[in-house]
Amino acid sequence: MKTMTNGMLGLIVGDALGVPVEFLTKDQILNRPNGKVTDMEGNGTFHLPEGSWSDDSSMALATLDSIQSCGGIHLQDIMEKFVLWIEKGAYTPFGQAFDIGRTCNEAILNFATNHDHLLCGKTGEYANGNGALMRILPVCVYWCEKQSETEKDLTAEAIKSIEQVAALTHNHKRSCIACGIYYFIIKQLHTALEDDALNTLIQQGVEEAFRFYAKDKEAVSELEEYDELLDIETFAEYQESELSPSGYVVDSMLSAIWCLVTTSTYKDCVLKAVNMGEDTDTIAAIAGGLAGIYYGADTIPVSWIEKLQGKESLKILF
To answer: Is residue 316 part of a domain?
Structure first.
C-alpha cells in the first residue's frame, strides 16, 4: 500500500500545484505579478482555493476506489464510478466535477447512455490525449503489487489489463503504449533498492517496455513515438525548449519524464513541470506520481499536503 499512497499523493499534489496556471504558457507564468509557481496557489485559471485538484486526481481516485471495492480491476465498475464523478461530483474537492477533458467526457457520456464499457472509448488519431495516462497509476501499482506476490511472470496479463483500462476513454494503441511504459517504470520504482538511481530505474523500465512491445506487430510503429526515451542520459540533456508540455499523450509523457530526470527532489520535479506551462496540472500529475513513488510521500512539503482541498475524498488513501 505504501507505493499506492506515495504515488497517489504525488499525483494529487502535482495536479493541485498546476491547476491555477493551467493553459498559461511558460512566458505568461513568468510574467505574472507573482512570477513562476513556487508554492500552492489559489484563484488562477478556475478561481478556486489553493490546494484544489482536478479531473486527473478525480479519475485516479475513482479508479482506486473501484480497485479497492472490487478487489481487482473491474472495467464496468470503473466506468460506473466515472459516471458518479461527472453526474454526482464524487471524487472531487467540492462536490462538482470540473476541467473535464473532451475525450474522457464523451466516453463517459457514451457509457452512461449504452452501459457498455467495450464501446465507450474513443478511437482514431484524436484519441491520443493524456486522459488515460493521467489516471492509470492505480492500475499500474495494483499490477506491480500482484507481481511482487508471485514468481509467475504477469507482464502480459498486466499490460492487457492496463490497456483495457486506458481504452475505456482513449482507445488508441499510442495512448495505451504510454500507459504500458508508465507501468514498466513504476515496476522498477516499486522494487527499487534505497541507493538505486532514478534515471537508471527509468532507463531500465523504458528498455523493458520496448522489449515487450517490440514483439507486438501492431505496436511497433506506435512505439517509435517514444524513441527519445531509449537513451535517458541523452534525453536528460535536452533543453526545455525542445519539449512541448501539451495535452498530446506523447508530449505529456516526454515532458513528465524530462522533469523527473533533470531534478533530484519531488518538489523540484513538480515545480519544474508546472512552470513549463500549458497542460500544467496533468504534466505535474504524471511526473508527480512517479516522483512520489521514488522519493516517498514524506518528501512532499507538509504544507502542500495540508492545503489539499476535499479531505473527505482523500480518505481512501490512508
So the answer is: no
Per-residue pLDDT tens over the stretch 45-60? 999 999 999 999 999 9
Residues paired with residue 25 on neighbouring β-strands, in sequence order: 277
Our measurement of the distance from residue 27's CA atom to the centroid of its chain's CA atoms, rounded to an integer in Å, reads 25
Would the pTM of this model clear 0.85, i.e. be above it?
Answer: yes
**Is 41 inside a domain boundary?**
no
Q: Could you count the other beta carbons within 10 Å of the beta carbon of residue 126? A: 11
d(CA 129, CA 247) in angstroms, rounded, equals 6
Joined grid coordinates for residue 74: 473491474
Sequence-ordered list of residues with C-beta below 8 angstroms from that of 81, at least 6 positions apart, any chain: 62, 63, 65, 66, 90, 91
What residue type is assigned to position 24 of the chain? L
DSSP, collapsed to helix, strand or coil, labels residue 307 as coil
b/e sequence 88-123, b meaning 16+ C-beta within 10 Å: ebbbbbeeebebbbebbbbbbebbeeeeebeebbbe
Count up the domains in the chain and report the number.
1
3-state DSSP assignment of residue 122: strand
CB 101 within 8 A of CB 282: no
